């Protein structure tokens, strides 16, 4: 009998030995099948862990790049371009949920092809100019491939959401090969991050069905946050001169 591993996609053959139809034989057969299922589950878990590991390494690679940019900039200028950095690696459950949501086959190969936010990094900056500076600095590095840019600062979403989203690929050097791994980057200001956090908590509380009055207030708050970013940038420019 041939089975397909739902995670790794591998085929395996289970050989069933026919024995005399006694209770001992049936017991041995059932025990053997249980052992095979458990072994298959263990192998599945190992394959998935190995798959996720490369994304963890990609997060480490990009985090190091960001840390270097941050430290070097602080030594050369009057402020840090980065307030804080958060990283996220999708859990196995989140991976499966995302795959089912987008209709992705339940194989590791398909996950790698169709799910590009397995590894995620959020960079929060003081000023809008810092957001674009970080993107430019990363894009200028020879081992960073910018695959996709979604600029929700220049063109906010209908609900008021503002952020700069990038999909980049970086090389991860394993013991036997190098692999290009995608990482989702979200770069935003403190004001944008605060608004997004509150908006997310409200939508979570209302299970996605937010009253119109609250949606309108969130839209107004998003415009206020954008005005705050513009005002703070102008004040800094008046005090310290043009930015970069």
UniProtKB/TrEMBL annotation:
Enzyme class: transferase
Pfam family, one: RelA_SpoT
Region Disordered, residue ranges: 1-21
Recorded GO MF terms: GTP diphosphokinase activity; kinase activity
EC number from the UniProt entry: 2.7.6.5
Domain RelA/SpoT: residue ranges: 87-210
UniProt-listed GO biological process terms: guanosine tetraphosphate metabolic process
Keywords tagged on the record: Kinase, Transferase
Biased composition (Polar residues): 1-16
SUPFAM superfamilies: Nucleotidyltransferase
Matches recorded under PANTHER family: GTP PYROPHOSPHOKINASE YJBM (PTHR47837), GTP PYROPHOSPHOKINASE YWAC (PTHR47837:SF2)
Protein name (record): Putative GTP pyrophosphokinase
Native source organism of the sequence: Nocardioides albus
């Amino acid at each position: 009998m041939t089975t397909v591993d739902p995670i790794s996609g591998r085929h395996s053959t289970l050989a069933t030995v026919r024995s005399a139809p006694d209770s001992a034989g049936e017991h041995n057969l059932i025990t053997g099948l249980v052992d095979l299922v458990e072994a298959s589950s263990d192998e599945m878990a190992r394959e998935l862990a190995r798959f996720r590991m490369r994304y963890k390494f990609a997060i480490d690679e990009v985090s190091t790049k960001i840390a270097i940019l941050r430290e070097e900039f602080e030594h050369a200028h009057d402020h840090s371009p980065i307030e804080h950095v958060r990283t996220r690696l999708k859990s196995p459950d989140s991976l499966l949920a995302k795959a089912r949501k987008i209709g992705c086959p339940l194989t590791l190969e398909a996950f790698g092809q169709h799910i590009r936010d397995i590894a995620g990094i959020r960079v929060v900056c003081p000023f809008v100019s810092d957001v674009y500076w970080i993107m430019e600095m990363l894009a200028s590095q020879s081992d960073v491939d910018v695959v996709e840019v979604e600029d929700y600062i220049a063109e906010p979403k209908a609900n008021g959401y503002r952020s700069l989203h990038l999909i980049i690929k970086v090389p991860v050097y394993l013991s036997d090969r190098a692999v290009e791994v995608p990482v989702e980057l979200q770069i935003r200001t403190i004001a944008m991050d605060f608004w997004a956090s509150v908006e997310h908590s409200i939508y979570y509380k209302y299970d996605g069905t937010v009253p119109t009055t609250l949606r309108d207030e969130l839209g107004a708050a998003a415009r206020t946050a954008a005005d705050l970013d513009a005002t703070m940038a102008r004040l800094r420019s008046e005090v310290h001169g043009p930015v970069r």
